[in-house]
Write a structure and sequence with these properties.
By secondary structure, this protein is α/β, with parallel strands linked by helices. 56% of the residues lie in helices and 16% in strands. It has helices at 16-28, 39-46, 65-74, 92-100, 113-216, 222-231, 233-265, 277-287, 289-292, 317-337, 369-372, 392-403, and strands at residues 8-12, 32-36, 53-57, 83-87, 105-108, 273-275, 302-306, 313-315, 344-351, 355-362, 407-413, 417-425. A five-stranded parallel sheet has the order 2-1-3-4-5, sandwiched between helices. Helix 4 links the parallel strand 4 and strand 5 (105-108). The two termini are 74 Å apart. The structure holds adenosine-5'-triphosphate and magnesium ion. Adenosine-5'-triphosphate is lined by residues 326, 330-331, 334, 362, 364, 367, 371, 375, 380-383, 388-394, 418.
């Protein structure tokens, strides 16, 4: 029975008698034996078969054993095959030359069969151990690579989680502060706001009364006339209602801001609940008003709202406000940097079949493609040190994708502008 796992030996020798002796003896010892009659044909045979060991005669016509060995060692495919020289010479110089060329051993003619067999077996064993070791090494290396990769991945993940925690904590601390301040301001503003109406009514009444008196008694005497002059009654008559009116507008505005702050911080709304997204966007815009409004000869940033009809959306409202804030601040920052004449931010909302789409577009000049790939990486920022942390979009991504199962996409055109498109799933 032919064992397919028999070790394969290649004998390279020009002497037929030698070949015959070796061939028969090795075959009987359980090897598969192949033969080549000179160096050239050995080398070409080696291109097709890959023996486990080569027995190489030194003295041959054409290229000799040394040269054959040298060429084998130059060929990456062949250089690992162990070579044993066969030499009739007991000359040490030859043996050393063979070994220095990369042969693993030598045997001398005439052969001692047991010795030949012992040497062949030893080198086959060594060879298989070496191969084994190389394989294990490779596995170990792969394992190491995998381990390194995993460590890197985990570290990045940890860093991300950590930064989110830190930012999350900062945001919630800020939220609590804002909510606290808003709450404190709320009451006094309500006194003012609530009483202004009466103040205005009473004032009207009093002014009317004074006017009636003046009609009834056009000549009230010196003392009263002096007083009328002193307080400039005519001006007060005109200005007091106007003044009350602007106080009313101011108080209303404070109330709106307080409402927005409370809406934005929403410490009371950490849970998942139905919310009006437009209210969230509007309060965020209100908070950012000082950054977008016209100042002096700066016309400011035009905000275009194109709101569709949206249902209430189940979400974490406070977190979505953070998202709007980060995206809007980024757009404003980009517009500040790229001072062109007509700066605008457009916010389009739309209910679609299975989701709600919110598109925030600016005309700030866009993001270069090489930057676009990194936008959502934590700590990626192109802003000067101290200005940006590079966490804004990473947080946005995590809130939209992980917390709300939505998607975020950035479409940007250099020299034109950038759009961030949020999609939040809704089930109706
Ligand atoms: N609308 C935009 N136009 C141009 N570049 C933008 C825009 N939005 C984001 N970027 C770019 O993406 C980078 C990352 O944004 P991200 O919000 O994550 O961090 P940041 O704004 O630099 O810092 P942080 O938000 O933490 O203060 C920005 O530095 C900027 O280069
Ligand atoms: Mg940002």
């Amino acid at each position: 029975m032919d064992n397919p796992n028999k070790p394969i030996l290649l004998i390279v020798d020009d002497n037929p008698t030698n070949i015959k002796v070796l061939f028969n003896f090795l075959k009987e010892s359980g090897f598969k034996v192949l033969v080549a009659k000179d160096g050239e044909s050995a080398l070409s045979k080696l291109q097709e078969i890959s023996p486990d060991l080569v027995l190489l005669d030194v003295m041959m016509p054409g290229i000799d054993g040394f040269e054959t060995c040298r060429r084998m060692k130059e060929d990456p495919k062949l250089k690992e095959i162990p070579v044993i020289f066969m030499t009739a010479l007991s000359d040490t110089v030859d043996k050393v030359k063979g070994l220095s060329l990369g042969a693993v051993d030598y045997i001398t003619k005439p052969f001692q069969q047991e010795e030949v067999l012992a040497r062949i077996n030893l080198h086959l064993k060594l060879r298989s151990l070496t191969l084994d070791l190389a394989q294990k090494n490779e596995k170990l290396e792969n394992f190491n690579h995998e381990l390194e990769r995993q460590v890197e991945e985990r570290t990045a993940e940890l860093k991300r989680t950590q930064s989110q925690l830190v930012l999350g904590e900062k945001m919630s601390a800020l939220g609590q502060l804002v909510a606290g301040v808003a709450h404190e301001i709320n009451n006094p503003v309500n006194f003012i706001y609530g009483n202004l109406r009466y103040a205005s009514e009473y004032t009207h009444g009093l002014l009317e009364l004074v006017q009636k008196y003046q009609e009834k008694d056009p000549d009230p005497g010196e003392e009263i006339e002096e007083l009328i002059e002193e307080i400039d009654l005519e001006f007060v008559n005109e200005d007091l209602p106007r003044l009350l009116n602007s106080m009313q507008i101011g108080a209303e505005r404070i109330r709106e801001i307080v409402l927005s702050l409370r809406n934005f911080s929403r410490v009371d709304e950490a849970e998942f609940k139905e919310a009006d997204l437009h209210a969230g966007i509007d309060s965020t815009l209100m908070i950012l008003h000082s950054k977008t409004k016209a100042k002096g000869d700066d016309p400011g940033i035009e905000i275009i709202r194109d709101y569709g009809k949206l249902p209430l959306v189940k979400c974490y409202p406070g977190q979505l406000n953070q998202v709007f804030m980060n995206l809007l601040v980024n757009a404003i920052d980009a517009l500040e940097e790229n001072r062109k004449s007509e700066r605008k931010i457009e916010i389009i909302t739309q209910k679609r079949e299975k989701d709600i789409e919110i598109r925030i577009t600016d005309n700030a000049g866009g993001i270069p493609p090489e930057v676009q790939d990194k936008l959502f990486n934590p700590f990626f920022t192109t802003k000067p040190v101290g200005k940006g942390t590079g966490l804004g979009l990473a947080i946005v991504h995590s809130i939209i994708v992980e917390k709300h199962g939505g998607t975020i996409e950035c479409q940007s055109q250099v020299n034109d502008g950038t759009a961030f498109i949020l999609r939040l799933p809704v089930d109706n």
